[in-house]
Protein 1
Amino acid sequence: MLGPIKMVVFDMAGTTVNEQNVVYKTLHKAIEAHGIDVALATVLRLGAGKEKLQAIKDVLEQVAPDKIDRAAVIFEYFKSALTKAYNSLAVEPVTGVDLLLPKLRAAGIKVVLNTGYSGSIAQSLLQKLQWEQGREYDLLVTASDVVQSRPHPEMIELAMKTLLVEDPAQVLKAGDSAIDIEEGKNARCGVTVGVLSGAQTTAQLESVAPDFIIDSLIDLPALFAS
């Protein structure tokens, strides 16, 4: 049974939000549109969970290091393409998550959404979901709010400071990518949980040794009860 948890920090795309991997599909298309051949699986492996300019740099460093100077141009192309994709995309919560979040809050657990997206993209997702601060979640922290994004713990540390949670041992971090787990460990979170509803596989999550791996956040209450 999990110890006393005062705050949960959930990734967005693939963890709480089902957006059909459109971010990484768009990132993949943006890189290929600039003459760089790369597999979608490679983009997912190297870019999942990261601030997206950094994700592009990491992909280029791996597959086309001589073209790393194109990262900023690709990033601008990506942002424009993603805005267009989101305008027509039907975004839904991962099954059951919209019911889970208020239950956690009703139990006195602070719910934080954090993401490698920019603030504007994250807000557009929340508007599509019709999620409201103070109802589904207590705080949103995005890559726009910090200097250092994942796996640096700054986003979690900011959430703790804002919500007056002093002990990281009372924080649970859950996400669908290895970098989510690394972020949680770097923040010294008491519990890290990998979820299989998004970008990465069991083997990829196991490589960073989360405390638990579950199919989806709807399985999270069972961890508290076990």
Note: Residues 117 and 127 are 15 Å apart (CA to CA).
Protein 2
Amino acid sequence: MSAILTFWHKEWLAAWRNYHILILAVIFVIFGIEAPLMAKLMPDLMKLALGDQFSIKLPQSTSSDSWQQFYKNTSQIGIFLLALVFSGTVSQEVSSGTLVNLITKGLPRYAVIIAKYLAAVVQWVVAIGVSFIITWGYTAYYFPDDKSPHVWLAIWPVLLFGLFFVAVVLLGSTVVNSNYAGFLVAALVFASLALLNYVKAVKRWNPIALVTDNLDLVRGTEKITHILPACGVTVAAALVILGVTIWTFNQKRL
């Protein structure tokens, strides 16, 4: 445990010096502000864009539109930003040789992977949490309606998906000695899960449901029990992938 904590401290210093924390903070704060603002301004923007010739009356924006934008940002940009930021977290250190002295002095190899995993997960949870709270506050102010009764329920699957996605990024960065390997592997896995979602028999078990069915949870048109199988698969897959990553790193020549 002490070895993990030691390397954990090193990871946070590196994240600060490499501006990873700042990048995630700025982007996700923008997400939090942008989602309700876009929902609020969209009807007016459409009128300006189409001019007087547009005679169809647009429906008023609701809180549901704000949350739709939030989860769109999270699943289409935020999750890939996470992968990009941590893409070279292992391969970069292996290439530069910075781990050799630490390993030869007795640092267990598993401590490296676990510390990196936990540091990335915490940054993901904090970034999403801050963005969510900002979105919730502005949405409640702009749209005081009853269109989104379960806003707090829908965020947990996103956080859970992050546990899986970080594990995938780490595995890619460990297997391939490239600074973009983690991102490419994660993008490939995400695309594969998206395609797999078209198979009706496995849809409820597909981890991607955790970042695609959130709006239904917010609106109350779908219950959390609908994606519980996907939650179980996601946690199990994250643990297996993390284990494979540790085993691969143990075999890797530094």
Note: The chain has a mean pLDDT of 89.
Protein 3
Amino acid sequence: MPAADTSLPLSADDSAAVQLATQHWLETAVIGLNLCPFAKAVWAKQQVRIVVSGVDSPEALVEVLRAELRHLAETDAETTDTTLIVHPRVLQDFLDFNDFLGVADGVLVDEDLEGELQVASFHPQFQFEGTAPDDMGNFSNRSPYPTLHLLREDSIDRAVEAFPEAEAIYERNIETLEKLGPAGWQALFPPR
């Protein structure tokens, strides 16, 4: 397969395909497998903003991140509670993506949004420290494309209050994913 021409913006068809794959992942894994018990309500209320970005450099992604952090901070939570920035052309390598998370935290500080918003991460090659690449626990943070998830701190606090055993989510996710296994995941997400 030839490399994508990153000098051009994403076509409308490519952008729509990324959007659909992300929505499928949200509905099938995040909500369907209940990997995040807080996601269903905001998804049902249409409070999730998905931004598909065609940028092709980390520097350009910083500007997209900055703009989306500002947008989320200035938007009522009833309209947009959380934002996913999906960026299929930049930070394809997980180690580069992981390194970028420090930059993302710096943008939060620069924008004076630390303590108000936070950035979580999803990636097709996501790997928790100390795990093997094929460890099923890693799939709790595997998305079809590199994705920065912008969350409101107060929404997280409310969700944790409503779900008193929030610390058990990670362990439950590992159990769910191990039962599902690689073949089960593959059945949910056949190769594109």
Note: The chain is about 45% helix and 10% strand.
